Amino acid sequence: MERAHRSRRVQTVDRGVAEHRSPDQIVPQSQRMSRPGHADPGHAHRNGTPRLAWAKIYARCLMLTEIPIIVGVVVASQTIRFDDDPVDQVAGSLPLSYWTLSAILSVGWILAVYLAGCWDATLIAAGRIGVRPLVHGTVYFFALVAVTAFLLRLQVARGYLALALPLGLAGIMASRWIWHSLFNEFRRSGQHLETIVVIGGRTNAVAFASRIREHPESGYRVAGLCLPPGSPTVQLARTQELNGFPVLGNFDDVMASVRESRASLVAVAASEDFGADDVRRLAWELERTGVRLALAPTVADVAGPRMLVTHVADLPLMHIVEPSFRGPRLIVKTALDLVLAAGALILFAPVMVLVAAAVKLHDGGPVFFRHERVGLRGRHFHVLKFRSMIPDADRRVDDVREATDSTESVFFKAADDPRITPIGRFIRRTSLDELPQLLNVLGGQMSIVGPRPLVPGEGAAIERFVERRILVKPGITGLWQVSGRSDLSADQRIRLDFYYVENWSLAGDLVLIAKTVGTVLTGKGAV
Questions:
Q1: Strand (E) or helix (H) holding 406
Q2: Element (H, E) at 136
Q3: Strands in 251-314 per DSSP E
């Protein structure tokens, strides 16, 4: 009876809202939620500001950059291929010049990227701003070109297409990466953020909203929370904050809250008081308003490739695929480690000689610092680094912890550590002290990418932390290094380590290696 009563009430804004709000917060009747099937189609653009303005700007920037890249690459490929070749006609059954083919190829490629949704503001707003649709659209188009040429018996120069495809993809992906990085910087400064209202149970709603707040680069700003009707916070005052988030009301106030906050997305976190029927009714209310609906599952820190959605009894069921710690992918990762480590040692050998000489000449102490760490399956090994501290640094660690008020820190690393030498500060800031760990990689004790190696006993008080970390090899670089390094809190480091162990992939490792270069060059978070 209670569920049926509340289901009827969700169609209109709770009449009791006004009793809990100050006069300036009362929503006028003309602005309250419409009845089901009569949602106001124009409220998504009130005050003349589109809800997806940032996504439309982003899509326009991508389009205006990538169309010239496609045309330029096609023309350049033709010029390079036929620079010293007088041939200007495509051999085959049709009278077709290469200039005409280039025009057709350019228009077709642009159309393929467009149809793949790469410039669709709605898809961009939903998070599809990566390169996968771009790669799929491009590859499918070139496959279509190859099939068409075969059917029409056109002998298109292979070198022409072999130049256009990789150059075009590389140029477009570089453009997309630049714009993505630029928009992330805007978002970190509070610009181009999409406003969302989070509804759900008190614990789950706050947890979801907090994660969004920690990552402004994701593109969202939480306007507030709508909690269950019986929530103490809602009963006390509609204007009260919960963990820094305004409480906008209960489940009956969702539409009014969306209207007031000008939100473009409603995220539903798990709640026993908001079931499948309530989600369906809310979706009906949001139709033709320009406001999207998203469901936030209780699972966290699981990468997309490990999630599989199926339908059982007309209900979506999310499967979590078990993480992989063996098999062909691990063999390829090991081979990649060996190749990259050997190449890096050869490339940086002169630099390593200079660093070793500088460390030795500074105080006459040992060049390398050897320290016991925990590796794969709990095996202990000695990690190698260029020494960046005074020779007796280990014996003074407890004194420094006490002096820096870090006796309880899970991971100890102080920016003002008096044990660090002048040479040590430089090689730490530039990460040159890590170069000897390439020898650990060649020895099979470490990987290029992975969680940082722990000192024995470090993190032992954290539930399942050490047990999960030793499932993979520790790495020279990883999520810590590209996400803030020493600027991260202990909780953030723990979560990033768990995330890497559960979700590592070869493509992800390559991305982390590329990001590490930028992090090292900027020196952000280095201690």
A1: none
A2: helix 132-151
A3: 265-268, 292-295, 307-312
425 contacts 384 by C-beta, under 8 angstroms: no
Least confident of 209-223, 235-249, 306-320: 235-249
What the chain holds in terms of domains, given with CATH numbers, is 2-32+193-298 (3.40.50.1980), 53-188 (no CATH), 328-522 (no CATH)
Which of 275, 272, 125, 140 shows the shortest CA–CA distance to 194? 125
Q: How large is the average pLDDT for residues 30-41?
A: 37
Asked if residues 499 and 300 have their Cβ atoms less than 8 Å apart, the reply is no
The predicted model scores a pTM of: 0.64
Rounded to whole angstroms, how far apart are CA atoms 372 and 381? 6
At 88, is the secondary structure helix, strand, or coil?
coil
Of 180-194, 343-357, 403-417, 435-449, give the lowest mean pLDDT range.
403-417
Half-sphere exposure of 114 (CA within 13 A, CB side): 11
Question: Of 25-29, 259-263, 289-293, which range is least confident?
Answer: 25-29
- What letter represents residue 522's amino acid? T
Contact 420, 340 (CB under 8 A): no
- The answer, yes or no, to whether residue 105 has pLDDT greater than 50, is yes
Torsion of CA 17, 18, 24, 27, to 10 degrees: 70
What are the residues whose beta carbons fall under 8 Å from the beta carbon of 433, sequence distance 6 or more? Answer: 355, 385, 386, 387, 388, 424, 427
- Span 161-188, mean pLDDT? 86
Tokens of 115: 């149809």
Residue-wise pLDDT for 426-445, tens only, equals 998 888 999 999 999 999 99
Residue with tokens 């000689």: 353
- φ and ψ of 443, to 5 deg: -80, 0
CB atoms inside a 10 Å sphere around CB 56: 16
DSSP-based three-state secondary structure for 222: strand
Query: Do 509 and 476 form a contact (C-beta atoms < 8 A)?
Result: no
Of residues 267, 216, 225, 217, the one with CA closest to residue 246: 225
Share of the chain above pLDDT 70, in %: 80
Q: Which of 174-183, 312-321, 357-366 has the highest mean pLDDT?
A: 357-366
Residues in the chain: 527
Residues 6+ apart with CB under 8 A from 510: none
Reduce the secondary structure of 80-91 to three states and give it as a string: HHCCCCCCCEEE
Tokens read off for 49? 């500001």
CA distance 132 to 137: 9
Rg (CA), the chain: 29
Cα–Cα distance for residue pair 188/416, rounded to 1 Å: 28
Mean pLDDT, residues 261-286 taken together = 88
User: Cβ of 95: how many Cβ atoms within 10 Å?
Assistant: 8
